[in-house]
Amino acid sequence: MLLKDKTILIMGIRNKWSIAYGIAESAYKQGAKLIFTYMGEENKDKIEKLIGDFKDSKAYVLDGASEDDLVKEVFTKIKEENGKIDGIVHAIAHANTEDLHNDFIQTSKEGFAHANDVSSYSLVLTARMAKELDMLNEEASIVTLTYLGSTRVLDGYNVMGIAKSALEASVRYLAVNLGKEGIRINAVSSGPIKTLSAKGIKDFNSILGVVEEKAPLHRNVTIEQIGDVATFLLSKMSESITGQVIYADSGYSIIG
Predict the structure, then answer these.
(1) Catalytic one of 28, 60, 121, 147
(2) In the annotation, is 157 catalytic?
(3) Tell me, what DSSP letter sits at residue 196?
(4) 47 domain-assigned
(5) Domain residues for 228?
(6) CATH at 172
(7) Is 147 among the catalytic positions?
(8) pLDDT one-digit tens code per residue, 17-41
């Protein structure tokens, strides 16, 4: 098993249709012990039920993944209760609905800052805090999630495309900093998937149709497939890969 005796923290679990859940399933099947963070104490019962199939897993509330003090507090508790970990999955992103539905030129300063703070800075903070707290074992791996809208104009993606572009650049710079400690970091650029977050994108179903029509494999991807790619990046089998954006989109990104 690729992740036998490894402990993986998955940040941003929401429901069984989320990419984070697909990664959790794959990592668990490959032997990982799982730790989760989620938003909202009121969601505790729902999350505990959601992760119930993952034996011995734990979940912690983190209501501000881009808030330095909150992340430090939660990461300190995670380390105290679980020891060092072997990997982190950053599955956190958000933009205001109006900034996805209106023309990009209408993006407010507040909306621009919010999308980048939650979707991009939170990764930098995650990496920094994990390093400062000596939370990661040797050869640990960090994986984050991005999308093609970071490099191409996709209708309705708007400010999230800017945030994902910043996220991908952050991966490259973090790879240099973390590489000194033998820690790797990569991003998975998934094809479109029907998640709760995707519902905020205008005409999302039409995007699925375009991918199915034009991608070389003529099909959309699943959370299980993305989960397997992430598990590979978390495992020793990818030990030569860092600072990369790995496209897992049925080949759609290569089409002109």
Answers:
(1) 147
(2) yes
(3) T
(4) yes
(5) 7-248
(6) 3.40.50.720
(7) yes
(8) 999 999 999 999 999 999 999 999 9
